[in-house]
């Protein structure tokens, strides 16, 4: 997966750091269009039909929610990122109670697509006038965060060895680790030297308690203190994470985990990571013709001028966004078949 993501990531030099970042923006409608493409390009009427409860439509719905960051199969719906879609009176939280009540009535053992669809109906019915075409910040996934660590290590020329010691020691200990944190914040779109931190995105990505007002308040106080102290650039950015985002936020945990995962992947690169003879065989065998993603036709826009490898990547993308465990026919871990 890291390789797959590397192909689509812009690898810039230090100079472009301030101007470009990997933050992801999507509108509900653009996500939906991508999902309809993944499933059945012949029938574009699905783009406009949001409340049909057949398998096809509910799976498009789940795909859309995954793409805009409001749903994961493991955790179900994610309330905090969902808040970005609410255009109503921010002081009136009645709608939120209504959504919670509606969501609590969804039976837990429903089919994944149908469960996502039920949640979708709950939030659409209470969130009022949602602008379907307005692109919004989509919180990054673990893999995207790990890719940012890989990019930053490359940009800052941090060796595999150094990355491992960064992962093993507290983050404020070395200049390298503080600069890595700064690069991470910038490339994920959370911070820039010109505009400072983006509190909206930090809240959507890292908050653990759905209370933006107190998040902003405690963050603001801490940030003010940092500005009054005279830190160098890297220490300043790193302290945003270690000091200002340690309260009701999982920023430090998420970033530490991403650095740890990349360091670990580099440490075991001689044992896993590709299918070279002698390496341990970790693999999923995916059947894209069964379960929720059958009837998939690759539209010509996705197949033209593509090599067999690239076509395979398209199939993988399709699995990532609209497949689930029904499409996984075999699982191998360290050479042993476990499913
Ligand atoms: C496309 O889907 C709509 C709604 O599901 C259905 O009414 C229509 O018959 C379908 N059209 C084709 C060509 O399959
Ligand atoms: C709060 O919003 C709900 C709808 O979500 C509405 O029925 C209610 O009247 C609002 N309350 C106030 C005080 O505006
Ligand atoms: C912060 O992020 C939000 C959501 O992506 C965006 O709408 C807003 O313009 C950003 N604010 C600044 C100051 O860049
Ligand atoms: C497999 O990974 C090793 C690193 O352990 C690398 O040297 C080799 O080029 C890779 N092979 C392929 C085919 O990607």
Lateral arrangement of strands in the main beta sheet: 7-8-9
Tell me the fraction of residues in β-strands, as a range.
Answer: 5-15%
Percent range for helical residues? 40-55%
| Distance from first to last alpha carbon | 21 Å
Mean pLDDT equals 83
Computed structural class: mainly alpha
Q: Could you say which overall geometry the principal axes of the C-alpha atoms support? A: globular
Q: Rg to the nearest angstrom? A: 21 Å
Largest sheet: 3 strands, antiparallel
Tally of DSSP helical segments: 16
> Runs with pLDDT <50, length 5+?
1-19
Question: Mind explaining what this structure looks like?
Answer:
It comes from Culex pipiens pipiens. It holds the Pfam family PBP_GOBP. By secondary structure, the chain is mainly alpha-helical. It has 16 helices and 9 strands. The chain has a 3-stranded antiparallel beta sheet, with no helix packed on it. Strand 5 and strand 6 form a beta hairpin. Helix 6 runs antiparallel to helix 7 and helix 8 packs across helix 14. The radius of gyration is 21 Å and the shape is globular. It starts with a helix and ends with a strand. The N terminus is likely disordered. The site of one 2-acetamido-2-deoxy-beta-D-glucopyranose has 3 residues, from helix 6. One 2-acetamido-2-deoxy-beta-D-glucopyranose binds next to helix 6.
